[in-house]
Automatic annotation (TrEMBL):
This is Menaquinol:cytochrome c reductase iron-sulfur subunit. It comes from Anaerobacillus isosaccharinicus. It comes from the Bacteria. GO terms for molecular function: 2 iron, 2 sulfur cluster binding; metal ion binding; monooxygenase activity; oxidoreductase activity, acting on paired donors, with incorporation or reduction of molecular oxygen. CDD domains: Rieske. Belongs to the Rieske iron-sulfur protein family. PANTHER family: CYTOCHROME B-C1 COMPLEX SUBUNIT RIESKE, MITOCHONDRIAL (PTHR10134).
Length: 166
């Protein structure tokens, strides 16, 4: 290559320099703004707070349905959401199950079908679950009911997020 081909005119030098500095400054301003705008969406769902649902004294070995509300933050949108749980106490242990059928999401009820006595029953497609939430063989659901995170403080039952049973 000749020396002539490598020569950069003053005008070209200024062009390159200003373009580089301008791009750097634009990125410095734009990136924090983009990060600020997307931040709520990038956060993994914040842990749902534990919500007081009932008193331990209200529980028996028979599952009982309790309705409650939680504050849910979904990216930029904050709302109050209704939830329900089937809760019972047996052998000193409290269990809180989600009423959402794991087949296609209908709502299960306790002991409402003659064929499935003392079990949770889903009327949508005749799904059934044992008292501990395990799905009954040869019914449509293929996984157990979700179980709520649970804490007991001063005789009050607090529920968090429903999670799949392992
Ligand atoms: S939705 Fe419950 S059995 Fe299908």
């Amino acid at each position: 290559m000749s020396e002539k081909e490598h020569k950069v005119s003053r005008r070209q030098f200024l062009n390159y320099t200003l373009t580089g500095v301008g791009g750097f400054m634009a990125a410095g301003i734009t990136l924090p703004l983009v990060r600020f705008a997307l931040d709520p969406a990038l956060k993994t769902g914040a842990d749902t707070e534990m919500v007081a649902v009932t008193q331990v004294s209200q529980l028996s070995s028979e599952p009982k349905r309790f309705d409650f509300k939680i504050d849910q933050v979904d990216a930029w949108y904050e709302s109050e959401v209704s939830r329900s749980a089937w809760i019972y106490q047996e052998d000193g242990q409290i269990v809180a199950l989600s009423p959402v059928c794991t087949h296609l999401g209908c709502t299960v009820d306790w002991d409402t079908n003659e064929e499935f006595k003392n079990r949770f029953f889903c009327p949508c497609h005749y799904g059934a679950f044992e008292k501990d939430g395990k799905n009954v063989d040869r019914t449509p659901p293929t996984q157990p009911l979700f179980v709520y995170d649970l804490e007991v403080r001063d005789g009050t039952v607090y529920l968090g997020r429903p999670r799949p049973q392992v």
